[in-house]
Specification:
It is a single chain. The strands form two sheets. This protein has a seven-stranded antiparallel β-sheet. A two-stranded antiparallel ribbon has the order 4-5. It is built from two helices and nine strands. It starts with 10 loop residues before the first strand and ends in an 11-residue tail after the last helix. Strand 4 and strand 5 form a beta hairpin. It is globular. By secondary structure, it is an alpha+beta fold.
């Protein structure tokens, strides 16, 4: 896959714990590639029953989005990849939301790992699976904290993306 600037892009998506250097998980062709990406947006409606009339509905606002990633890991390509899902389980067990960023640089916001399922098949003689299919369900982390953290991360990304120069950009 080639990105808009013509460079080879290997990372499909990243989950990263804000404020840590080690708290990240990359989805990529060489590690854990997903084959299916499903995004579900929800919209909240309240319903009130009424006598002799149809129930009344009122829009309450957006709900939490969910993302399902289905993919496969081939351990023949990299035997260390057998432990990748254990690493993600360890990060998810910290109980903190992740910043979700796509390989194109799109910032999706804060998400938590709701569930992780793997299925191992086609084994080597020592019991190591050649193929690990996985499904990861992510749920948007809502609230004011989410909006503030997402804005802070976006500002930091913009600062890092600006070219460094010796001239000051401040106007007098």
């Amino acid at each position: 896959m080639t990105s808009a600037n013509g460079q080879q892009s290997m990372i499909m998506m990243t989950l990263s714990l804000p404020g840590t250097q080690e708290g990240y998980f990359h989805f990529s062709i060489s590690t854990a590639a997903y084959e299916d990406l499903t995004i579900s947006d929800n919209y909240r409606w309240a319903t009130q029953d009424r006598i002799s009339y149809l129930p009344a509905t009122q829009y309450l606002g957006p709900g939490l989005s969910t993302i399902a990633l289905k993919g496969v890991i081939f351990t023949e390509l990299n035997k260390d990849s057998y432990f990748l899902l254990d690493r993600l389980r360890n990060l998810a067990s910290k109980g903190k939301p992740f910043v979700l960023t796509s390989g194109t640089g799109k910032l999706h916001g804060l998400y938590l790992v709701e569930s992780l399922t793997d299925q191992q098949s086609v084994f080597f003689s020592d019991g190591l699976p050649r193929k690990i299919s996985f499904t990861i369900n992510l749920k948007q982390f809502g609230g004011e904290v989410c909006q503030q953290s997402t804005v802070q991360v976006q500002k930091k990304r913009e600062q890092l993306a600006q070219p460094k120069s010796g001239k000051s950009n401040k106007s007098s």
